[in-house]
């Protein structure tokens, strides 16, 4: 007999590049993601900022660093992102 095998394709994990705004917690950082969106009425670009809490296992990132965060399973009430890499250190 033949088995019916169904392959499930996992969706690509979302990732964002943003700036660390807080590193006061242990193994956690707050990353601000800034996007530009066009206003429907006035046809001007509006800057939107959203904050995400991310898991930083080694406490590497500090305030002002540009980092890449990747979506992961829920780690706590507010954390479902983890630090993937530090793109640029703060000066």
Automatic annotation (TrEMBL):
GO terms for cellular component: cytosolic small ribosomal subunit. Gene3D superfamilies: Nucleic acid-binding proteins. InterPro entries: NA-bd_OB-fold, Ribosomal_uS17, Ribosomal_uS17_bact/chlr, Ribosomal_uS17_CS. The keyword Protease does not apply. It comes from the Bacteria. PROSITE patterns: RIBOSOMAL_S17. One of its GO terms (biological process) is translation. GO terms for molecular function: rRNA binding; structural constituent of ribosome. Keywords: Ribonucleoprotein, Ribosomal protein, RNA-binding, rRNA-binding. Belongs to the universal ribosomal protein uS17 family. This is Small ribosomal subunit protein uS17. It comes from Treponema porcinum. The gene is rpsQ.
């Amino acid at each position: 007999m033949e088995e019916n095998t169904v392959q499930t394709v996992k969706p690509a994990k979302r990732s964002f590049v943003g700036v660390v705004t807080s590193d006061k917690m242990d193994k956690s950082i707050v990353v601000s993601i800034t996007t530009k969106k066009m206003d429907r009425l006035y046809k001007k670009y509006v800057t939107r900022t959203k904050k995400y809490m991310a898991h930083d296992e080694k406490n590497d990132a500090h305030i002002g660093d540009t980092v890449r965060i990747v979506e992961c399973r829920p780690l706590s009430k507010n954390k479902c992102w983890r630090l993937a890499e530090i793109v640029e250190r703060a000066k």
